[in-house]
Amino acid sequence: MTFGILIFNQVEELDFVGPWEMLTLWRAQAGGPETCLIVAPTLAPITCAKGLSVNPHASFETCPDLDYLLVPGGMGTRAEVNNPELVAFIARQARTCKAVLSVCTGSFLLHAAGLLSGKRATTHWGSLDRLRALGDVEVLEQRHVRDGHIWTSAGIAAGTDQMLAFIASEAGAEAAGKVQLAAEYYPEAIRYGSAHLDPQAPAYLRRT
Length: 208
Known about the structure:
It is a single chain. The chain is an alpha/beta fold and 208 residues long. The chain has one domain (2-206): Rossmann fold, CATH 3.40.50.880. Helix content is 36%, strand content 18%. Strands 5-2-1-6-7-11-10 form a seven-stranded mixed beta sheet, sandwiched between helices.
């Protein structure tokens, strides 16, 4: 079983590092995918949105057929959505993947690859209207959304929650619980200040 995470220049770091942590703990703690790969267009280092430099394990040319693919977001998606090579890679891998996941604005890359038309999906709260404007996606203001074998999550940190939910769906709650404990990932239900009350923020964030 091979799980690939796609990255590209100006990808948001936590969009993929959080899920990577959960994914590799799944492998270590509860029999998750034998092979976990960071995939990029080439093997050249990728410069992320906040300056982190990452060395991919595989390029589009060397990447094997994946069982699962996760597509993160970030400012880089605004350029990559018009990158035919990257969009074609997603579409090609998706044909044989058991599941395809996106985090944050990675949802726009899934849409460009033809994977979100007629689906329920979400994205970063600041891009919900952009996703609605595509016209063929039922946009839900939720932390993460599953529609068949397509998973999408809200912004940045939401990808970590989505990955735990995905592990639970694939391997059961006990496996996800082992990962959660190993990561000591038990977010506190605290809202700091009043930023979450922004009327543009999704309803689930505005709850107190």
